[in-house]
Amino acid sequence: MVTGSVLLSYTVCDREAWLIAHNIEPNQNNPFIEIGRLIHTESYKNHQIREISLPGIKIDMIYEQGQVVVVGEIKKSSKFLKGARLQLLYYLSEIKKRNVDAVGRILIPKEKKQINVILDEQSANELREAIKNVEKIIVLPKPPQRKRTGFCSKCGYEEFCWS
Ligand code: SF4
User: Fold this and answer.
1) Dihedral angle computed from the Cα positions of residues 75, 77, 110 and 87, in that order, rounded to the nearest 10 degrees
2) CA 29, 148, 138, 120 torsion: positive or negative?
3) How far does the centroid of ligand 1 lie from the alpha carbon of residue 147, in Å?
4) Distance 45 CA to ligand 1 centre (A)
5) 117-161, pLDDT tens digit by residue?
6) From the candidate CATH numbers 3.40.50.300, 3.40.50.1580, 3.90.320.10, 3.40.630.40, the one assigned to the domain spanning 4-162
7) In this structure, which residue's CA is closest to atom 2 in ligand 1?
């Protein structure tokens, strides 16, 4: 199943996207996963609505700012912005199907950055294209071949792929 996390991973590694889509758990003791978890729990504690889960969606927080509904996605750095943007577009599109119009905001507390993400015609097309590509990957009977890249050393599947 395509989810926000699968789309995020797809921008980094096809194999990772396949593994996540097939519910193969990454190593939860990976220090980079732990740091990410800590930033998620310790940042923006004052926001009342945190973590909403729907099928394929795990929204970090949702809040109103004036008349606007904001869907926030907390990231530990701006390193994977392309994937974070795609993930948020997916969430915006899914909640739009439930009649909620919202804007997305990538929140990077360590860098004191906030980046808006808007679901418009162009970004919706981009999302559709990415979903089509991801579907082609996740229907494969086996994970795509591993490829050593700069991401592997920080990936929760490093042991799975390389030991
Ligand atoms: S360790 Fe490397 S090849 Fe394996 S899933 Fe992670 S990024 Fe992909």
Assistant:
1) -20
2) positive
3) 7
4) 32
5) 999 999 999 999 999 999 999 999 999 999 999 999 989 999 999
6) 3.90.320.10
7) 152
What's the full length of the chain, in residues? 163
Q: What residues flank ligand 1, with Cβ below 6 Å?
A: 13, 15-16, 146-147, 149, 151-152, 155, 157-158, 161
C-alpha of residue 81 to centroid of ligand 1, in Å = 18
**Distance in angstroms (rounded) separating the CA atoms of residues 32 and 10:** 18
16-59 confidence digits (pLDDT tens): 999 999 999 887 777 666 666 666 666 666 666 667 788 778 88
Domain map (residue ranges) of the chain: 4-162
